[in-house]
Write a structure and sequence with these properties.
By secondary structure, this protein is an alpha/beta fold. It has 2 domains: 19-68, no CATH class; 73-146, no CATH class. It contains 4 helices and 4 strands, in the order αββαβαβα. It has a 4-stranded mixed beta sheet. The protein is flat, with a radius of gyration of 23 Å.
Length: 152
C-alpha cells in the first residue's frame, strides 16, 4: 500500500509546476532573473486573470497537487522525525532518519554521538564535516587564548 502511495506522489511531483507570483517574469523585485525571490503570493485583485483561473495563465496551488496524506513527510521511503534534545532521540528506532532542530553546539555533539551508536541517519547534519569544523574552531580559540588577546 505504501509503495503505491509513494508512486502516486512521485507522479504528482513530476507534473507539478513551480507556482510563481503574477508578473514574476516581468519585474526584478518579484523575481526576474532572481530565483530566490520567486515566491507564491495569492492573487487578490478584482479583475486578476490568475485569480479567476483563466486559460493561458500560470497555475495556482490547490489541494489536488498535494501528496497522499499517509506518505506526507516521507523522505527516501521512510518517515522523518524532528529532534530538539537527547531525550527525543531515545524514542527513535534504529535505521530511522531524523532532522535536528535549531539547538546549540553542545547538544548537537551529544545527539551526534548517540545517533552514531544507534545507527540513525541525520539528514541536516554531515557528521564528518561538522567534526572538522569543531576542531578548527577549537584550534582558533586555543590560539587566541595563548596570545592573551580577547579578540577584536
Amino acid at each position: 500500500m505504501k509503495e503505491k502511495l509513494l508512486k502516486t506522489r512521485s507522479k504528482v511531483k513530476k507534473r507539478k509546476p513551480k507556482f510563481q507570483r503574477k508578473d514574476s517574469k516581468k519585474i526584478s523585485k518579484l523575481g526576474k532573473r532572481r530565483k530566490k525571490k520567486v515566491k507564491w503570493r495569492k492573487p487578490s485583485g478584482m479583475h486578476n486573470k490568475l485569480r479567476l483561473k483563466r486559460a493561458g495563465y500560470l497555475r495556482q496551488p490547490s489541494i489536488g497537487w498535494s501528496s497522499p496524506k499517509k506518505v506526507r513527510g516521507y523522505i527516501q521511503d521512510s518517515l522523518v522525525k524532528t529532534i530538539s534534545n537527547v531525550g527525543d532521540l531515545e524514542k527513535i528506532n534504529k535505521g530511522e532518519m531524523i532532522i535536528v532542530k535549531h539547538i546549540g553546539r553542545k547538544k548537537k555533539i551529544e545527539i551526534m554521538k548517540k545517533a552514531k551508536e544507534k545507527n540513525i541517519v541525520i539528514l541536516n547534519l554531515k557528521i564528518k564535516k561538522y567534526k572538522k569544523f569543531l576542531e578548527k574552531k577549537n584550534e582558533n580559540t586555543k590560539s587566541t587564548k595563548k596570545d592573551g588577546s580577547k579578540g577584536a
